[in-house]
Design goal:
Elements lengths: L12 H7 L13 E2 L11 H13 L13 H15 L8 E4 L2 H12 L5 E6 L3 H9 L3 E6 L8 H7 L4 E7 L11 H14 L2 E5 L25 E6 L1 H4 L7 E4 L2 H14 L5 H13 L1 H21 L1 H4 L4 E6 L2 E5 L6 H12 L1 E2 L1 E2 L14 E5 L5 H12 L6
Parallel strand pairs: 1-11, 3-4, 3-5, 5-6, 6-7
Antiparallel strand pairs: 2-8, 7-8, 9-10, 10-13, 12-13
Helix pairs in contact: 2-10, 3-10, 4-5, 4-9, 11-14
C-alpha cells in the first residue's frame, strides 16, 4: 500500500491534546490550566493594533498580493537589526519573510533535500520539524542529547552520511527550554561547514534568551551564508501568532530557491502582519524588553519553586524561553499521565512521547510545560496540582 505524504507522519500534537478536553468538566474551584501550546494568548499592544487597523483601512495595496519574499522595508529592517544584534553583515537580499517560522523551516528543507535525503534533529525534537521531514520524504536522524539536553557534536559527526543535508537546532530550545551555549553553536557551524552540509538554526525564542547581548557569533563569520540558514519568528515577540510572520536568512542563491517554494505555497506572506512586525521592530523595543523580563521572572519561579516537586520525585531537566521540561516519577507513560492530568488535576500539557522517536523510552518519562501564559502565582498553582497527582494517575 502506498501512503500519502500526510499519512507518513503523526497527528498534530497540540490538536491531539486539545481533543483530550472533549467531555471533561472542570470544577469551578479547579479551572483548566492549559500549558500545552507555546503561544501568547494576550493580544498585541494597543499601539500595534491601531497600526494594523490603519493599514487595513488606509492602504489598498495591503489587500493585494505582495512581494513573494516579503515587504522590502521589513526585510531591510530585519537585516539591519540582525547585523546589529550579531555584529555581522546581513543584507536585505539575505532575508525572506515567510508565513510563520514553520514555513521558513519548510522552505529551507525544500531547498536542501531530495527524496531519501537525511536531516539530523536532536531529541527531544520540535515535532513540527519532524512532521515536515516525514511529509517531504526526508529521513529524520535522531541525535540523542545528553543529561543537560545538549547535543554532542562528536555524536552528530558519527551520524553524518552521504545523504545528510543538514543539522537543525532550536535555541532556546523547544521543547526543552535549554539555551545552547555560543561555543556549542560554533562547533555545529564548523561541523556543518567541514562536512559540506547546512546548519539550520531556529531562534524563534531569541527575544526571551536569558543572556544579554548576542547569543552567538555565527553572523560574524564573513562567509556565514555558505553554511548557516537562520530562522526567526515575529509571532512570539509581538503577539502576532494568528498573523503568521516569520523569516529566513540565507544566501542570495538560496533565496532564489526559497522564492520558488513560497510562491507555490502561499504566493506571499500576509501584508497586515508584516506591517505590524515592521512597526513593532521600530517602536516596541522597550515593550519587548519588559516582556522578556517577565518571561525570565517566570523562569526563575519555575526553578526556585521546583523543590516542591523534587520532594515528590520529579526532576527539572531544562527551562528557558517559554518552556519547562521535566521528568515525572510515575510508573506509567507520560502519554497516559498527560491525559490523566486533564481529568484529575485540570492540567493540559504535552507528554515527552510527542517529542521523541517511538523507540526512545526517555519520552515516556517526560513532560513539556509551556508556561508563557502563567504568572508566578499560576506557576505555584500548577506545582500544587502536579504535586497532588497520585502515582499511577
Amino acid at each position: 500500500m502506498i501512503l500519502s505524504r500526510t499519512a507518513t507522519t503523526f497527528a498534530p500534537p497540540v490538536m491531539e491534546a486539545r481533543r483530550w478536553l472533549d467531555g471533561v468538566d472542570f470544577p469551578a474551584d479547579r479551572p483548566l490550566i492549559n500549558v500545552s501550546q507555546a503561544a501568547p494568548v494576550d493580544p498585541p499592544p494597543d499601539g500595534l493594533r491601531h497600526v494594523m487597523a490603519d493599514v487595513a483601512l488606509g492602504r489598498d495595496d495591503a489587500h493585494l498580493y505582495g512581494p513573494v519574499l516579503g515587504l522590502p522595508e521589513l526585510r531591510a529592517e530585519l537585516a539591519h537589526q540582525t547585523s546589529r544584534i550579531y555584529a555581522g553583515q546581513v543584507e536585505t537580499d539575505h532575508i525572506a519573510i515567510t508565513s510563520g517560522c514553520n514555513q521558513a523551516f519548510a522552505a529551507a528543507i525544500a531547498t536542501l533535500c531530495a527524496e531519501g535525503d537525511e536531516v539530523i534533529l536532536p531529541t527531544p525534537w520540535y515535532f513540527n520539524h519532524k512532521m515536515w521531514l516525514d511529509m517531504s520524504g526526508v529521513k529524520t536522524v535522531p541525535l540523542k542529547t545528553d543529561a543537560a539536553l545538549l547535543p554532542d557534536p562528536e555524536v552528530a559527526q558519527s551520524l553524518i552520511t552521504p545523504r545528510t543535508r543538514a543539522i537543525a537546532l532550536v535555541s532556546p530550545n523547544n521543547p526543552a527550554g535549554v539555551e545552547y551555549p555560543a561555543e556549542l553553536l560554533r562547533a555545529y557551524f564548523d561541523l556543518a561547514r567541514r562536512n559540506g552540509i547546512a546548519l539550520i538554526l531556529d531562534e524563534t525564542y531569541r527575544d526571551f534568551h536569558s543572556q544579554s547581548g548576542a547569543p552567538h557569533g555565527l553572523f560574524e563569520d564573513p562567509d556565514w551564508e555558505d553554511t548557516l540558514i537562520h530562522l526567526y519568528s515575529f509571532s512570539k515577540a509581538y503577539r502576532l501568532t494568528g498573523h503568521r510572520v516569520g523569516a529566513l536568512a540565507g544566501s542570495k542563491s538560496r533565496l532564489a530557491e526559497v522564492e520558488k517554494f513560497l510562491d507555490t505555497v502561499a504566493i506571499c506572506p500576509g501584508q497586515i502582519g508584516q506591517h505590524a512586525a515592521l512597526w513593532g521592530m521600530q517602536n516596541l523595543s522597550q515593550w519587548l524588553a519588559g516582556g522578556r523580563d517577565e518571561i525570565l521572572k517566570r523562569r526563575r519561579a519555575i526553578e526556585t519553586g521546583f523543590h516542591r516537586l523534587t520532594d515528590k520525585g520529579w526532576s527539572l531537566l531544562g527551562s528557558g524561553a517559554y518552556f519547562a521540561y521535566m521528568a515525572h516519577p510515575f510508573a506509567i507513560s507520560s502519554a497516559e499521565l498527560a491525559q490523566n492530568l486533564v481529568r484529575d488535576q485540570s492540567v493540559l500539557c504535552l507528554p515527552g512521547t510527542m517529542f521523541c522517536p517511538t523507540d526512545d523510552a526517555t519520552g515516556a518519562r517526560q513532560l513539556r510545560i509551556a508556561f508563557a501564559n502563567l504568572d508566578t502565582s499560576g506557576i505555584g498553582i500548577l506545582f500544587d496540582r502536579l504535586a497532588g497527582m497520585n502515582t499511577g494517575g
